[in-house]
Amino acid sequence: MTDGLPEMTSLERTALYKSLGNPLRRRILDYLGRHGEANSTVLARELGESSGTTSYHLRKLAEQRLIEEIPEKSGGRERWWRALPFRHTTPDPAAMAPEEYAAAAELAQLKIEFDTALYRRAHQEYRGPEGWAQVQRHGSWMTREELLAFLREYHVLLERYTHAREEAPDGARPVLMRFYAVPEPVGEWNSEPTGP
Predict the structure, then answer these.
(1) Residue 100, class by beta-carbon neighbours within 10 Å (0-12 exposed, 13-18 middle, 19+ buried)?
(2) What secondary structure, in 3-state letters, does 95-106 show?
(3) What's this model's pTM, rounded to 2 decimal places?
């Protein structure tokens, strides 16, 4: 679900996954995340594309509420854009339409490749427990309800310690964080299948 927005339909989620899987759109979102704002001309120059191409993709990202126009900077044909805060939780794959599932699976594969490279980088850049790069691994016994409660508290912690780009204090840097949890594949636990 996106922050403060109504639940998306299967068709909207399919379009979102395809959009986020588009290499140029991902690069545009990355650029806006790092630099705060841009127009199609700036993006064309920085990303090695034509301004017509970047303009088209900016409009598509705006349709999906991933970015918005900056009215005070836009004028005439020159439109400036900024990224919007965004959060989305993928629904249960069993509830997805086939096209939605295919788009989500393709996007997940791209994320896995990116996250694997990020994990390697975190290990390479680790400089001890007080450094910028951190890697934590834990194992624990939890009920499913406790795991879900932990995840909710994790989101609360993220909100507490996260700043919007324009409000970040001196010394703040963009930090990429990932969270995943998976039960050990013990076959069955209390008559509930938990793995292969």
Answers:
(1) buried
(2) HCCHHHHHHHHH
(3) 0.75
pLDDT tens digits, 22-66: 999 999 999 998 899 999 999 999 999 999 999 999 999 999 999
Angle at 121 between CA 182 and CA 176, to 5 degrees: 65
DSSP 93-133: GGGS-HHHHHHHHHHHHHHHHHHHHHHHHHHHT--STTSS-
Quickly tell me which residue has 């001196």 as its tokens: 170
Query: What is the rounded CA–CA span in Å between residue 106 and residue 21?
Result: 7
What's the CA gap between 106 and 104, in Å, rounded?
5
**C-alpha span between 31 and 12 (Å, rounded):** 24
Give residue 54's pLDDT.
Answer: 96
Amino acid at 79: R
- Residues 122, 61, 164, 161: is their CA dihedral positive or negative? negative
- Which residue matches tokens 């975190």? 122
Start-to-end CA span in the chain (Å): 30
Q: Contact 5/65 with Cβ under 8 angstroms?
A: yes
